[in-house]
């Protein structure tokens, strides 16, 4: 199951550097491309806002 970024995202950019497959794109609220997501959870582990969760 891929991860998603919730509305709690502060667009700080911490997660983008952690994504080994380049699935995260920047914006007012960052976004994870579910087709590219490797489901490793590295982005969720570093998110200071707790804004990245599994997309169930």
Summarize the structure.
Helix content is 18%, strand content 18%. It has 56 residues and is α+β, with helices and mostly antiparallel strands.
Q: What can you tell me about this protein's structure?
A:
By secondary structure, the protein is an alpha+beta fold. The protein has one domain (3-54): 2-Layer Sandwich (Alpha-Beta Plaits), CATH 3.30.70.20. The protein is 18% helix and 18% strand. It contains two helices and four strands; from the N terminus they run βαββαβ. A two-stranded antiparallel sheet has the order 1-4. Strand 2 (24-25) and strand 3 (31-32) form a beta hairpin. The radius of gyration is 10 Å and the shape is globular. The relative contact order is 0.40. The mean pLDDT is 95.
Q: How is this fold's topology laid out?
A:
Layout: E1 3-5, H1 14-18, E2 24-25, E3 31-32, H2 42-46, E4 52-54
Antiparallel strand pairs: 1-4, 2-3
DSSP E strands, number? 4
| Percent range for β-strand residues | 15-25%
The helix/strand series, from N terminus to C terminus, equals EHEEHE
* Count of DSSP-assigned helices: 2
**Inertia-based shape:** globular
Oligomer classification? single chain
Which structural traits does this protein have?
56 residues, two-stranded antiparallel sheet, Alpha-Beta Plaits, alpha+beta, 2 helices, single chain
